[in-house]
Amino acid sequence: MTSVARGPLQQLAVRCRAVVDASWFNLASFAVVIVNAVALGLETYGGVVATVGTALRAVEYTCLVLFVVELLVRFGAHAPAPAGFFRDRWNVFDLLIVAAPLLPGVRENVTLLRLLRLARIVRAFRLFPSLRVILVGIRRSLPGLGSFLLVTALLLYGYAMLGWILFGTSYPEQYGTVGQAMLTLFLLLSLDGITDTLQEGREVTAWAIVYYVSYMVAACYLLTNLLVGLVLTALQEAHEAEQVAAQRAGHQPAGETEDEPSVREQLARVQAIISDLERRLPEQDRSVLAGAVPDRAGGGGPPAAELGTLVRPKTRAARRRSRSANRRRRG
Fold first, then answer.
1. pLDDT tens digits for 228-241?
2. Which residues of the chain have pLDDT under 50?
3. For a Cys-Cys bond, which of 46, 51, 160, 314 suits 288, CB 3.0-4.6 Å?
4. pTM of this prediction?
5. Structural domains in the chain, sorted by start
């Protein structure tokens, strides 16, 4: 009964897996995501909504139906073992994004509903490996990014205190408090207007050159390169992880098993085992073994499967006869 029941599920899983692995499936899913994003953007124009608002809602519902169909196909690929569907985080993410707007309480919240609809655009990352590498790389860079933000905050705070000491009286709007000074220095990270700022600082004190030049070197160049290095390292690790996952997935395709050794290979293995046994057995037992083993050229004798049942009894009997013969000689 189990095999009969699992047969249709296996066939369904194979067909759904073939659809999911097809290149056109990802392209079609990506096209639906783009259409949904365009419809969501057009809803921000009041004139468009007044003119074709009904058509936009129809497009929205059509995209939602297609998203549900896509999830059903992906779930069908795991029909024999449904738990495998939920082991993939992308599947869980898609399920939450698609099903959340249908829940009571969410449908009435317009802001939350729009955010969930906007989150569907993120589904484009799961459709292509290159986009997944970028998203996974960003996620892997988050721990290092926390340390980077801490170093940046400490550096800005230190220079903000120095800026308050040097320019707090002359420029209270920019350096009147440590908070205002940190905001001013944060805006200067892009080096926008740094020339005018440096010239204004030189009118107050000659230390402005040392202050701003050291800030540009420490914050604008070193910190920026550090951030780039963190992101590039995380992207490299994500790319390597994606390659390893692809190699594991393609090592043995679903439904494919290793080729069983041929009869000739099996016979060669049996003959190798027999040769090894012949070398290990005593000289007086080789004749017994030779009578139990079939001729290597294809002669008579019992089949190789009966080797274990024939060799042991005759070998033990031969040993008993040898012991009795030895006792008679001694007597």
1. 888 888 878 877 77
2. 1-5, 251-260, 293, 295-300, 304-314
3. 314
4. 0.51
5. 2-127 (1.20.120.350), 140-251 (1.10.287.70), 263-325 (no CATH)
